[in-house]
Design a protein that fits this description.
The chain has 7 helices and 2 strands. The protein is mainly alpha-helical and 155 residues long. α2 packs across α5 and α3 crosses α4.
Length: 155
């Protein structure tokens, strides 16, 4: 590897480190400033995923949420008991079930998203016009960054 390639590699790594650190700070800020709506972060995340992706098997949802299958089963039971999610037969395998968000669960997710949007808008309003414009310009890249390969393929 020549000096120029090494320099380029190091600069890309530094940029990736800086971006990673900035994203961690955004995530921390979002977590600390969230209005829980009486739900845990895990519950809101799982409901949000079910809203976005649609019904999923417990094992699929556990993998996507980074939870163990027993942990997600416990969470699914809590969501179902609260009327926020429901189990239904898996159309592709009658022996299995999927977890789906209910209308009540969808209302809770939307209320959370609206409260978060107001909080974010307030914070963005405190930034300079230049920073606001930069964030607006970065939005498409951030959306693409967070999409899975399957989601990118559907566009």
């Amino acid at each position: 590897m020549c000096i120029r390639e090494l320099y380029s590699f190091l600069m890309q790594t530094v940029d990736a480190l800086d971006l990673g650190h900035a994203l961690e700070r955004v995530i921390t800020w979002l977590r600390e400033s969230r209005d829980p709506q009486g739900l845990s972060a895990s519950a809101l995340s799982a409901l949000g995923r079910l809203d976005t992706v649609g019904p999923l098997r417990i094992t699929e949802l556990a993998a996507l949420e980074g939870l163990s299958q027993p942990g997600l089963t416990t969470l699914a039971n809590r969501l179902e008991d609260a009327g926020l999610a429901t189990r239904q037969p898996d159309p592709s395998d009658g022996r299995a079930v999927t977890l789906a968000i209910t209308p009540t669960g969808l209302e809770r997710v939307r209320a959370h998203r609206e409260a978060r949007a107001i909080h974010i808008a307030t914070r963005i309003g405190q930034l300079s016009a230049e920073d606001q414009h930069s964030l607006e310009g970065a939005l498409p890249a951030l959306i693409h960054f967070t999409e899975s390969p399957a989601e990118r393929g559907n566009q």
